[in-house]
Write a structure and sequence with these properties.
By secondary structure, the protein is α+β, with helices and mostly antiparallel strands. Helices cover 26% and strands 32% of the residues. It has 2 helices and 4 strands.
């Protein structure tokens, strides 16, 4: 992925089972990729969210309708 980076990556909870050391390593790779690619990462990890440019949340109300909430990070 470093020789021929993709324009974007989609990842679903790739860091869920990682310990702190390996999570730090993965976040370093994410930060390197941010320069050349867009990253879409589904996560519940606060540390992963902290390096994001924007966060999107999806919630469901009692009537079964989903709502998307977004927040840009300065």
């Amino acid at each position: 992925f470093r020789a021929r980076p993709s324009p974007f990556y989609v990842m679903d909870e790739v860091e869920a089972a990682l310990d702190d050391l390996n999570l730090s390593r993965l976040l370093t790779v994410f930060e390197e990729l941010q320069d050349s690619s867009q990253l879409i990462v589904i996560t519940h990890q606060k540390r992963t969210m902290e390096i994001a440019d924007a966060l999107y949340g999806v919630t469901m109300h009692g009537d079964g309708v989903s709502k998307v909430i977004s927040q840009r990070i300065p």
